[in-house]
Specification:
Elements: H1 25-38, H2 43-50, H3 57-64, H4 73-80, H5 83-95, H6 97-107, H7 111-122, E1 131-132, H8 133-144, H9 147-161, E2 171-172, H10 185-191, H11 207-220, E3 230-235, E4 245-251, H12 252-257, E5 260-262, E6 274-278, E7 287-290, H13 292-300, H14 304-318
Antiparallel strand pairs: 1-2, 3-5, 3-7, 4-6, 6-7
Helix pairs in contact: 1-2, 3-8, 5-7, 5-14, 6-11, 7-14, 8-9, 9-10, 13-14
């Protein structure tokens, strides 16, 4: 289940930008229209959504010049866990307390995690992007020779064909990720839900639909209710950093024996709970135990920094 292809300096779906294009854009559009029609998209919608398309040079520029991810964890966390973002999250938490509780009851995903994702993805819906999704996806599909992006463009047409959202609402990032959760069109179709009850998931304007859709995504990815994703810990002097890493799992009892100390107020967990230790800035920086749900958040964005920040922001928002 791929939510979106572009991450903060990490790209798992995108290939290296092509220097020579195999076909001109007009030929590409003819092929895209034929595929969309073969996929059952009504002709009127295919023509309406592709009639005036041109390669979006801003999309190409941003795609070819993604900034390298060179920040340390200390630098990254200071940037994304800002006092303003924390304060805004607390205000959102207070305003949506009952909604978040209802979503947690239904999906088992805690409010702190949802607030963390919401805040980091789009600053609680404030920064969703204003690129025309079908134009963006078509540009990327053509410029990269990418069947993935072409399929996403067709799925965006399918959203319109199903009456789930009008063409004018399909706006998002320069990678085609849409709305407050930043879902790709295929993920919208498979995962977005209408928690507000109108039958058409509105991840652009409805906080209820957006938050519930995020929770549904995490649940489908294997979220375990009642378990944390990560937590800061202390390690004893001389701790062997070779023990760190997501694949090096031990029970909490074993970690305690190795000199890892959980902090006061940490959630009660059985000693048998399996966890890994991360040292994102090395042995002299912060240390974290990460659990099964950490890997689930990485399905949303496969970056350790991102998943740690989601857990950190959620904790800070919910800690007065």
């Amino acid at each position: 289940m791929q939510r979106r292809p572009l991450l903060a300096g990490l790209s798992l779906v995108l290939a290296t930008p092509r220097i020579c294009l195999a076909e001109d854009f007009s030929s590409f559009l003819r092929s895209l229209r034929a595929r969309a029609l073969a996929a059952g998209i009504p002709r009127a919608i295919v023509l309406e959504t592709t009639r005036d398309l041109r390669p979006d040079q801003e999309v190409i520029k941003r795609d070819h010049h993604q900034a390298e991810f060179t920040l340390s964890w200390a630098e990254y966390s200071a940037r994304v866990l800002s006092p303003t973002r924390i304060d805004t999250g607390r205000a959102k938490d207070a305003a949506h307390h009952r909604l978040l509780a209802a979503i947690t009851r239904r999906f088992g995903v805690d409010a702190a995690t949802l607030l963390g994702i919401w805040g980091i993805e789009t600053n609680y819906g404030a920064n969703q992007g204003d690129f025309h999704v079908i134009g963006t996806l078509s540009t990327l599909a053509w410029n990269r020779g990418s069947r993935y992006f072409a399929n996403e463009a067709i799925d965006a047409m399918r959203i319109i064909a199903r009456g789930q959202a009008p063409a004018g609402r399909l706006t998002g990032s320069y990678a085609g990720a849409m709305g407050q959760p930043q879902f790709m069109p295929s993920v919208y179709l498979s995962t977005a839900i209408s928690f507000s009850g109108n039958g058409r998931p509105d991840i652009w304007h409805s906080d209820a639909d957006s938050l519930a859709s995020m929770a549904n995504y995490l649940t489908k990815a294997g979220w375990r209710a009642g378990e944390p994703s990560s937590e800061p810990v202390l390690i004893r002097p001389g701790f062997d950093p070779a023990l760190a890493g997501r694949k090096n799992l031990h029970s909490l009892a074993a970690w305690r024996g190795l000199g890892v100390q959980r902090l006061p107020g940490a959630r009660h967990l059985p000693d048998s709970t399996m966890a890994a230790l991360l040292l994102p800035d090395g042995a002299n920086g912060q240390a974290f135990l990460v659990y099964h749900n950490f890997s689930v958040i990485r399905r949303y964005n496969p970056s350790n920094f991102y998943a740690l920040a989601v857990g950190g922001l959620g904790h800070l928002v919910r800690t007065a």
